[in-house]
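Issue 218. Parser rejects a valid record. Input:
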Amino acid sequence: MGCTRRSFLTLASGAALTGLVACAQEEAKPEAESVEPEAEAQPEPEEPKVDLKEFKKLALDPQAWAYDENNDVYYQLGVPYCLHPSSERLESLAIFVPGAYFKQVEDGHDTKLEIDEDAKVGDFTAKTAPVAMPINSGNLGPQTSPTAYGYAGLGTYLSAGFVYVYAGFRGRSSGYDSSSKEVFSGGAPWPVVGLKAAVRFLRYNAELLPCDVSRVFTFGFGMGGGVSALMGCTGGAEEYAPYLESIGAATHDAQGEDISDTVYGSASWCPVTSFDTADASYEWMMGQYDSSATRSEGLWTKLLSNDLARAYADYVNDMGLCDDEGSALTLDETSGELFADGTYYVRMLECLESAASAFLTSTPFPYTYTPQYLANANFAGDPNLQSEGTGATDVDAVTGDASAQATGTVTTDDATGGLTRVQSVVFNTPLDYVEYLNDDSVWLTYNQVKGTVRITSVGDFVRHSKKPAKDVCAFDDLARSSVENQLFGTDEAGTLHFSRMVCEQLGEGQESYEQASGWNDGVVEEWLEDLEVTDSLETPMDVRMGMFNPLHYLSGRYEGFGTAEVARHWRINTGLTQTDTSLCTEFNLALALRQYEGVKSVSFTPVWGQGHVLAETSGTAEENFVTWVRGCCTE
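Output the parser choked on:
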């Protein structure tokens, strides 16, 4: 019950008066024999607010570890991370532990495993070891939990003292479980739900694992990189609670304490995410500089492309993004090209120039350029993926000067990881390389003395190095045929439109679009209908969109800002020539993170001359990830 200041003073004065009367009465009483005070009654212990045995079935069996003697690795496979998994292959995980973190202890006539708290591997002990959690699926197909053990690739992480956890999760569409013969939901937000449940499982079993479960690092590539970003900024987000509850994810430990799914760090390469504005950002950065296919003059989709570019400028100017000095980043309207000026534009151009400068000053020449495309990451943990390899094709190197052309047959293997390569080109000197780039017009200049690059415009960079590979509506496809349309589909409708921004542009521009070639009379109505569809948990499309957008939780433009826990450490790398998404995706994410209170470090590295791959300026992605995690754990 509340108590006002006046009532408090009234009660206090009454109590003082009562005390004076009591004292007067005491003085009038004759002396009495002293009596020992009665012992105060002890309060009854509070009943637990939760069922302490609710998640007992999720307790890890401490004696179920298998052992790889050759490589000194303990591991468990196929461990369910929730009470009601839709599929044993998807909602389960594998754990790989450096052998030194366990010791065998005599227990009567038997031996048992115990955590060796004094053991040290690399920079870590069994108490401080971080957890690395990979996301292998580049296009958000379902990630299955390993059913067999293979050491290939694990040594990079385990020799550094990490505990490696490979969790399965549902993919971008509904699935069928052959053992239960039941169909289960997929799509947004299920991939993130599975990984959150896996993190909660680890923390439920904290006492049984030789690691620091508060230091979980996720890492992924492509759309999997987008999921890693979501894991980094949706800790404890309420929107995920019904999904976690539906599969029986742990919400509290055996002592009744709440369990968090906040991760310590998030790493991503070429993340594909922020689907609410992805179509518009694609047209602003790339589409407006193209006049082929669906962007040909006379087509209604060319008009839509320009309108989406303008809509993206409005979005940027409403976001409140700032640079490192706190100055606002905005786009200014220009003649000719659409919104090709302003502090946001200049900052992006500087980002391109900085990456080119770093490349030309640090790359050993002769340099061999080989365009590549990677569909899935193939991080360690699942020997089925490792045995299939990357699907890489052999390449021929053409040695020559600036006239050398990168041509050749493209070979792709999408199912096995899909590393695509074409014929490579060898450049003898930095000037040969620059001359090659400027083959038809000079748009990039290199000052060898200062080691700096100047680029004439974002448009010129796009025309020469980042031409759009997707049609207008690159993500929310007009025919609902993209993987993103699958991602936002439902059990009943396998693919759906999801972008309200595109829908609004269609409605506003319909009158002019109808006068152009190729217009479809039913497109606006179809879009509006799709946006009203709810998923199996009755979640509206706009809410699902927010749940799958990192900026929903990081930018003050969105209602989700400040409603979730955000990872302390971030690493974002991207290949600048990749065309799966515009640079705006990673650029905006890095800017928003640097402004977000509580984020301790943001490493953002755009890599010149690389595409949709595990882009790094040097070394391997795995080794550089391990080095980054080490640094994050020194604070």
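Fixed in the parser; the record now loads. Confidence is low (pLDDT under 50) at residues 1-35, 388-417.
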